Amino acid sequence: MLGSMKMIGCLLLCLTTAFADETSELVDRLFDKDAEVRAAAREELVKLGDGALAKVLKRIEEREAGPSVLQVYDIRDFKTIKKWWPVVKGRIAHVGKKANVSFDDTRGTAVVLASNDLHAKIAAELDEMRKRMGTFVMIEARVLQLKKPVANMPQAMDKSKLDAWVKEHGITVINSPRLTTLNGEVASVSIANQRSYVKDFEVESSESGVIADPVIDIITSGLDVKMRAVVSHPKLVHVALVAKIAEIERDMPTLHLPLPIGPGVDVQFPVGSSHSVRRMLSCKPRSFQFVVVDAKTVIAVHAMAIEVKDIGEVLRPLGEPEWEDGAPVDRRGKTEKKDK
Fold first, then answer.
1. What distance in Å separates the CA atoms of residue 227 and residue 141, rounded to the nearest whole number?
2. In terms of C-beta density within 10 A (0-12 exposed, 13-18 middle, 19 or more buried), how is residue 320 classed?
3. Which of 52, 100, 139, 337 is the Cys-Cys partner for 48 at CB 3.0 to 4.6 Å?
């Protein structure tokens, strides 16, 4: 009985090996240089059953991806900043989910067995995370409203003197946001006022006559500022600024449209103006650069390169979850459940 079982096992092994050899041979012919050989192989491929076809397609996928390569990634630099280590482990595990990945927490390495394509994706992900871990820019933009034009408007002013200058000229600080952004990314500041008005009307018929149903729209005025900061030196940040300001007149012209039956309807027409200003600023430490938008609006901009030591400061603006023990944690500290 035992001898029969061994014989059956050997037979099954031989059949499996033979089928694997036939599959490999068919895949080789599909990639042959001779067009006739490739055509004959495609005809055989069509005649295969679902199980055999799936195995052939898997071998084709493995062939396209290339052979698996074992590579050790040195990621010790991510351990130097608070909370980056679990983040990078989570990202490598996510990108390389089709690979064999193991981590050595003591040495700060990741051992990955994967195809060359997956290795390229993991390397690109590490490069991107190193950029995020590297240089950040803190931008402070003070939007100032002038009561009257200031003679000899300065182009720049030391941070310690700005508050006194604002108080001396009776200037109102409308907004003073501080933004942290990645080096080279765009930061935005918006101060908007919205007004509703009657744009049009729709006519509806009823038993009592004709009814005009007003169509309400919203128009936005105010200031919109976009800033792209690029660090060229630890003590010099270039800021490309684009400011657009739009003003709408308080009293809108109105046109009364009569109806055959009923009181009619008033339609409003917003009237205003807008213009934009573009400037390239060179910001040095403790110095505000001035941008005159119009006769009443001035923007004072200060930018500096910063070193971020807490991953939370980086991930919150990016909208990404923090990672803790391999699981993402939202801003309220609740751990998301892992899919089993």
1. 10
2. middle
3. 52
Rounded-to-integer distance, Cα 327 and Cα 99, Å: 19
Choose among 159, 179, 170: nearest CA to 227: 179
Q: Is 265 helix (H, G, I), strand (E, B) or coil?
A: strand
CATH number attached to the domain at 69-134+315-329 = 3.30.1370
Residue 132's pLDDT is what? 60
> What is the predicted pLDDT for the residue at 58?
60
Q: Is the pLDDT of residue 288 over 90?
A: yes
Supply the pTM of this predicted model.
Answer: 0.50
Pair of tokens at residue 89 = 């482990």
Which position has the token pair 């990945």?
101
Name the least confident of 5-9, 177-181, 262-266, 281-285: 5-9
Q: Report whether pLDDT(10) > 60.
A: no
Residue with tokens 């994967």: 114
Quick one: what percent of the chain has pLDDT higher than 90? 13
Instruction: Read off the amino acid at residue 233.
Output: H
pLDDT score at 49:
60
Mean model confidence pLDDT for the chain: 75
DSSP letters spanning 126-167: HHHHHHHHS-EEEEEEEEEE-SSPPTT--SEEEHHHHHHHHH
121 vs 55: CA distance, rounded Å:
26
Domain ranges of the chain: 2-65, 69-134+315-329, 136-306
Residue 118's identity, in one-letter code, is: L
Q: How far apart are CA 296 and CA 230, in angstroms?
A: 29
The count of other CB atoms within 10 Å of the CB of residue 49 is 7
C-alpha–C-alpha distance, residues 55 and 249, integer Å? 71
Count of C-beta atoms within a 10 Å radius of residue 283: 23
Quick one: which of 225, 247, 136, 221 has its CA closest to 176?
225
Token couple for 167: 């108080």
